[in-house]
Structure formats: structure tokens, C-alpha cells
Amino acid sequence: MIEGEQTxxxxxxTPSAAEAPAPTTPAEQPAEASTVEPKPExxxxxxxxxxxxxxxxxxxxxxxxxxxxxxxxxxxxxxSVRDTLLRKVxxxxxxxxxxxxxxxxxxSRTFKNGKIKxxxxxxxxxxxxxxxxxxxxxxxxxxxxxxxxxTTGVGDFVGTPRPTPLELHEIEKIQLSSRAPExxxxxxxxxxxxxxxxIKEGPFxxxxxxxxxxxxxxxxxxVLVTIFGRQAPIEIEEWKLGKxxxx
Length: 247
Hints:
Elements: E1 67-73, H1 78-91, E2 98-102, E3 105-112, E4 115-122, E5 127-132, H2 142-149, E6 154-157, H3 168-177, E7 186-187, E8 196-199, E9 208-215, E10 220-227, E11 230-237, E12 241-243
Parallel strand pairs: 3-7
Antiparallel strand pairs: 1-5, 1-6, 2-5, 3-4, 8-9, 8-12, 9-10, 10-11
């Protein structure tokens, strides 16, 4: 964890014109003192200089005195484990030892029959990421350990017998890849320009063609198809297409 420190040196007050001493001769003039301009303080809520901010908020990637750990949990129980742990931490007043708890997910949009479907996918199935403060010997405080272990669906921390903290670049990648819920999800397109495809449904079912352009905002793909000996572009919903080598 990289923590930046800021120091601010106050400049000496300048005497008023009435208090200023009479000019001295060159021989009597003292050497000029070097001045150090104070560094500007970080705005409220912003990380200090040298401290990396989380990609999803103004908070630092790792809070001072804490580290991130990977906790194994039952499949499809990630969100319920996170919510239960957050609630228990508040009730037991353990916020000084347990910080944020993450279940990284990614949202994507797909189109089918003219309707938008939003899908949320867990990026690390079977894992919950917990920000914690350990004892000086590297162990989890006993009361925090039982608070976590007695939660339904919880397995073990990665690392035995002491949990292994994640590297800074690892948790930075996790936070960066997890899209915030309020952000507009991107449309996921399964084809690339120039790819050979087969039309699975519609009036051109059975035709093969080449992807000419992707239209993600409409959920469409423009495909070049040979009809009556001439190549013609048609726009078709992505879900009606299949990869030619899989047909």
C-alpha cells in the first residue's frame, strides 16, 4: 500500500512598511533565505498526494492500515454473503476491522425481438473480496474471524494458515473491471467485422455471409450476403446469426 504524505510549511509573516528596517549597505545585507512554497492540500474527500484512488470512487484503492483478501464462498451465494457480512459488521461495530466487501460484476445489454435485456455477470464466481485489518502477527482478529466464518455460505480465505493479502495491482484490476451499477452497460456483440456467419432465422435463413458492420446501439449486424449472384447488405438482429464454422 502506497500512502502519500503531505507537509505544508507556513511562510514567515511580512513586516508592514512602518515596521520595515532601514535599508542596509551591500556589505551589511544578510544572505537571502530560500523560501519553500506550501503544497496545496487535497480537496475534502480526495486521496492525498501519492495515494491512488479507486477507479469507481474517490476512496483509495486500499484504506490505511487495511488489506484486501479473497474469501471463498458457495456458488451463486456471493451477493447474499456480502449483504449478510456488511449487516453483521455494522451490528457488531467491527467497522474498524472490516471495510468494504466487493462482489465484482459486469453488466451488458443484448437485443432480442426488439427488446433490451440487461444481463449481470459475476466476474469472479465463488469469491467475495473483503477489506480487513489484521493483527500484528498477520492473523484475523478472533471475533472478526468467527463473525465471518459463521456466516452461511462462507468457506476459507485464500492463504493458509494466514490469509494472503492481494497485491495492489490485483485489487486495482478488480475494482476497475467492476462496472458501477449506475453506469450505462455496454452492448455485448459476439461477432467481429469480416467474420463469416450463417443466418439462422428469418427470410434469409440458411444464407451465409460476411459481417460488414456492427450496430450495437440497435442490436443489429450488417451482413453482406450473395443474392441472385450479387452481393447485397442486409441488417439483421445479432441473435439470428451463428458462426459459420459452428453451423
